[in-house]
Amino acid sequence: MKIALGQINPTVGDFSGNSAKIIAFAQRARSAGAGLVLFPELSVCGYPPRDLVERVSFVQHNREAAEHIAAETRGIAVICGLVTPAQAETGKSVLNSAALLMDGTIKFVQSKMLLPTYDVFDELRNFAPARSQVLFPFCGKQMALTICEDAWNDKHFWPRRLYNVDPVESLVKAGGNFVLNISASPFWARKRELRREMLATIARTDRVPVAFVNQVGGNDSLVFDGASMAFDREGNVIAQGKSFEEDLVFFDSDSLAGEMHQQIEGEEASIYAALVLGTRDYMHKCGFKQAIIGLSGGIDSALTATIAVEAIGAENVIGVGMPGPYSSEGSINDARELASNLGMRFELLRITEIFEGFKDTLKDVFRGRSEDATEENIQSRIRGSLLMALSNKLGTLVLSTGNKSELGVGYCTLYGDMAGGLAVINDVPKTLVYQLSHYANSRKPVIPRATIEKPPSAELRADQKDSDSLPAYEVLDAILEDYVEDAHSAEQIARERRFELELVKSVIRMVERNEYKRQQAAPGIKISPKAFGYGRRFPIAAKADF
């Protein structure tokens, strides 16, 4: 039998839109001769629904939508993810489930057993775990239907498992000879390779074909890369879907031959594609058509604008230069050149007069005190206020331009450069900002050479450079990666990186001291294993023990 993997981009809570998408893909699969089509985890309601599942009407709409899909997809079997009611004694009201739709009805329902509670996942908060799982017969096979995390506990792959049960192993021991996995597996750099090898290990170890369908698209901070796959019994990839776009890919359940659609290769290309997709979907799913960006002439705003233009079109992006008393003429020209290269609208609003007005208003209460970071932050907050005024007047979304390095150590201003509705690159370390900028220019040279080559500076005081306050970004980013993503101690980082211990401790102190800023920041787009945001939950009022 020909099986299809329906890699779709659902929107959370859009039952009519998601249902229409599932029906359209199922009808295409049926027309191509497929007898079964798989759709991602919670594809009926969109993933992650979070606390929306606590609403009775939300759960009811899942059932109604699934029944509607079943009625509209006769002639092909459909597996899709949805929320279903749980038994009252479980303590949770709903289950994360997969339904088999056939002949106009819901024929079979299987629920998720392993509910992740790490990183961005908090499924035990919302769902009850399935008590058991069973096989279902289809096209001469005993199908082992699993949902995302159910396949992420293979003892032959993971040196340290998170759960004491393995649903795939149990289903195979019960006679399962074909594994189906419907997923909503978020993207981060190198995740696709990890996922591929993990699923291939299951196929090789259990000597069963494995079919995996993954959600694609951006939902809030998460980006789903698609890259759906099917494997033969030796763990070879026999079918694969595209990365970062919707796709329908076919393979044969008996010959185990299928379609191999081209995927984006390379870490920089994949991260760039994830940022573009995440920006586009965040804006469109939140109802915004246009974006506005403060263009400083620096590399962070240049990369953000380049991503935004690719995501929503140059005609929908407005760049605003806001030079102050310490802005160089070169930076103004670089911002103007970038906007011209990208074909986007550019406005210039000078802030020096406004800044002088602030200082004049505050001169009496500031009397006897020398200028310091206060005056620097005033300039940043003036710019934030202007961007938000334009946002209100024009109905646009402000995209903030801070990177992960700055956010990590608090080298950013609340209500200033942190103002905005989406922080496009706040999970991108500064060193990676440069790499992605070179990558963008390799596709089409738009970021001015001067922007890339000049020393980074906030230009908030005379002759200011980032290196006045921070270690070299190569050093800073290495420390942040070890501390934030890998939870290494200061001593371990210093020893393994051969950095001065006091330097490492000073960076860690900055990280801990600025948690209050990060918890007020705009949501960003996750592209690393550990991003700032709801996947990294630390207290604000705490003392760090190094």
Annotation keywords:
546 residues; alpha/beta; Nitrilase/N-carbamoyl-D-aminoacid amidohydrolase; Rossmann fold; 2 domains; six-stranded mixed sheet; 17 helices; 19 strands
CATH superfamily of the largest domain: Carbon-nitrogen hydrolase
Query: What percentage of the residues does DSSP assign to strands (E)?
Result: 15-25%
Class from secondary-structure proportions: alpha/beta
Alpha-carbon distance between the termini? 59 Å
- The CATH topology assignment of the largest domain is Nitrilase/N-carbamoyl-D-aminoacid amidohydrolase
Order of adjacent strands in the largest pleated sheet = 5-4-3-2-1-14
Please state the second-level CATH architecture of the largest domain: 4-Layer Sandwich
Radius of gyration of CA atoms, rounded to a whole number: 25 Å
Shape assignment: elongated
What is the count of structural domains?
Answer: 2
Mean pLDDT: 95
Count of β-strands: 19
Count of helical regions = 17
